[in-house]
Give the backbone structure.
Amino acid sequence: MMARESFSSKEEIDTGLASASRIKIIVALAKDPEKWQSLYYLVKELSNDKNQIKRNLSELARIGWIEIACFASFLMNTAFYLFVVFG
């Protein structure tokens, strides 16, 4: 989990709503706020570039609007990144 930085309300809102992509990510995650979503779900849902989504997710995590957790599967040698919107 990333540590939340200190922002003024205006800076936080400006960062969180800086692009249409970030708003779409928030909407996609808010569809089912009780369920953690994966990066692959967001790529499929938004039809965007994975790297662009990752950059936007890191900005949203930096201001504390979402939480990022990594779960590794040693059997399959993969890692899953899951995201949730704070309520």
In short: Residues 50-62 form the longest helix (13 residues).
